[in-house]
Amino acid sequence: MYTDAQGNALTVASAEAARAFDHAIEGFLKYRFDAGLRLKAFITADPSAPLGQVMAGSFAMLAYDRGLLGRAAGSLAKAQALPANAREKAHMAALSAWIDGTPEKALSVWEQIVAEHPRDLLAFRLHHFCAFWMGAPERMVTLVEQVMPAWSDETAGYGSVLACRCFAHEETGSYTIAEHAGRDAVALDRGDLWAAHGVAHVLEMQGRRAEGLDWIAALEPNWDGGNNLMHHLWWHQAMFMAEQRDFDGVLRLYDTRFRNRESKVHLAQPDLYIDVQNAASMLFRLQLRGIAVGDRWEELAEKAEARIGDTLSAFTQPHWMMALAASGRRDAAARMLTALEDAARGNTHHARILRDAALPATRAVALHAEGRHDEVCDILRPALGDLHRLGGSHAQQDVLEQIFVDSAMKAGRQADARLALERAAAKSPVPPARRVGFAEAALAVAY
């Protein structure tokens, strides 16, 4: 019987295959650019290993791209045809639920796997990912605290568990626990992108902008070989700069780091959801502050138009609309809303999120671009309590709150502006008057 580095039984043909599995898992957890190649090496080492196919299907699902559903289903079918132990079969059940559009069922299966196998890093990390993008950070915290007693710094992968502990607690407002966990993970590996990211979120939420810039600058030399999570960390760097009103610096980072417009390579960049969110939300924030962004919307709008009808990522929908609306593509924007309305008519958990949160947020973006600010307020106000269900961090969700407060001010709706400021004050220890997206409203409206 072979086991992985955490002691879980593996259905593999050799010790070499078991170590190839560990190498692939490490690449996934540490956000390495070659994670896909590591997985390919594992499958090559043992084509009959069921978790190789489960990982291949999961990697396809992680992209939130409807065009990859067939690939994920094909990998699942291959896995189901192979001999497997009970834990590996449970992984197949979770992947099946995810592919079928019921990620809430997948969460429950992963939770059961981890209850029985607290060192199962694949189940733990996939749960962390999906719970986050389903707006359920409390489930992230519950699971990480459940497994912590089974881990120590002598166990392979401990730093990745600490990194997840950091982000889970940051998203639920336990900033002290979060920061300690993240810094401990970075002490174990200064190239741990997820841990660096979690601490950056803490510094963002606490308004520690100078520290945030220093944190990223100090760690960046350790990021060689990382994947596009580096783009998101540079987005955080831009967020710190924006709060210091260094808008020229933000645009430089956009062009040379997280969108890299100065390289021809950017034209062939995949439309991966997190990269789109980074780019669109930053351009939108800049425009709210009256900063001209030139033709930067165009390549995003091209990608957005090509993805109309792909609603797997609820939080990406309003970001696609930002690009379509800002580039004047009204016909495409209308088609996107129609497709989103169709997807929201279902009776699944995801369809309800689209209906209650993604659809009003996406409509509001389109209306905001047309200057119809009363309508923005009418649509967004009843949906504010549901926006968290879109997934995304507090820092990312903030752009949707800024749309509401901006329209409230422009429509002269002081009650709505006051509501927006009260929400902003409740979500962050940093007063709205010290946050660039809310400062003007805070000076004008008593709250």
Protein described:
67% of the residues lie in helices and 1% in strands. The chain is an all-alpha fold and 447 residues long. The protein has a domain at 270-447. It has a two-stranded antiparallel sheet with strand order 1-2. Helix 11 packs parallel to helix 13 (229-243). The termini are far apart. The mean pLDDT is 96.
Blueprint (SSEs and pairs):
Elements (H helix, E strand, L loop, with lengths): L1 E2 L5 E2 L4 H15 L5 H11 L4 H13 L6 H12 L5 H14 L3 H14 L4 H13 L3 H11 L10 H14 L3 H14 L4 H13 L3 H11 L9 H15 L3 H12 L14 H16 L8 H10 L9 H11 L3 H14 L5 H21 L3 H8 L13 H17 L3 H14 L11 H6 L3
Antiparallel strand pairs: 1-2
Euclidean distance between termini CA atoms: 64 Å
Mean pLDDT: 96
Q: What topology, given as strand order, has the largest sheet? A: 1-2
**Poorly predicted regions:** none
Q: Any idea what the shape is?
A: globular
- Strand proportion, as a percent range, falls in under 5%
User: In terms of structural class, how would the helical and strand content be classed?
Assistant: mainly alpha
Oligomer: single chain
**Could you describe the largest sheet, including whether it forms a barrel?**
2 strands, antiparallel
Helix content: 55-70%
Order of helices and strands: EEHHHHHHHHHHHHHHHHHHHHHHH
Count of distinct strands: 2
Helix tally? 23
Supply Rg.
Answer: 22 Å
